[in-house]
Amino acid sequence: MSLRRTLARAYWRVSRWNLVTERLPKDGAGILVGAPHTSNWDFVLMLAIGGEGDLRFKWLGKHTLFKGVAGPVMRGLGGIPVDRRDPAGLVDELVARISAGDRFYLVVTPEGTRSGDGWKSGFYRIARACDLPVTLGYVDRTTRTTGFGPTIRLTGDVRADMDVIRAFYADKSGAVPSRRTEPRLREELSGD
User: Fold this and answer.
1) Helix axes 3-14, 41-52, angle to 10 degrees
2) pTM of the prediction?
């Protein structure tokens, strides 16, 4: 058993949160949506969820988390820095990396900054471009549960796919319910 899995299992034994999760293939690849993303605790919970399953995963985080001494630690935990002031090319870079055969689960929090009026579409574009499954990870304070929910395949019908996602997250509150953002992509509003 890996050190990461041992630490994650120890965390779940003492945590006030309950892990209620679907199992993912350890050697698989896909997009792991982390939502509702309402607190920095979401990060700790996602590390513990992925660690318990001994999954190889990467995650996207704001570039300022990678400054100074924290940089090597964050990268060691699977972090990929994102400069939100200039995100151009990030999706293309990730698609190229995955298309070249790099196998890992990519954790994405589509709410981004935990404030706003919808989700960012990068997870959707990466999943479609690489034909990756999307697993809906969740945090629900009302039941104190967290884990991975269903895994879905996106069809390209943005509104229909997001309806499935919205139905799953409809009763999930996040760690700080007042910060929850409705799962809606800008593409749905514009009809693209």
Assistant:
1) 120
2) 0.89
Instruction: Give the alpha-carbon dihedral of 182, 91, 49, 16, to 10 degrees.
Output: -40
pLDDT for 132-183, tens place per residue?
999 999 999 999 999 999 999 999 999 999 999 999 999 998 888 888 888 9
What is the residue-wise DSSP string for 80-92?
EEE-TTS-TTHHH
16-45: burial string, b at 16+ Cβ within 10 Å, e else: ebebebeebeeebbbbbbbbbbbbeebbeb
Over the stretch 72-83, which tens digit does the pLDDT of each residue have? 999 988 999 888
CA distance 31 to 57: 9
- On the CB side of 48, CA atoms within 13 Å amount to 24
User: Residue for token digits 């409705």?
Assistant: 182
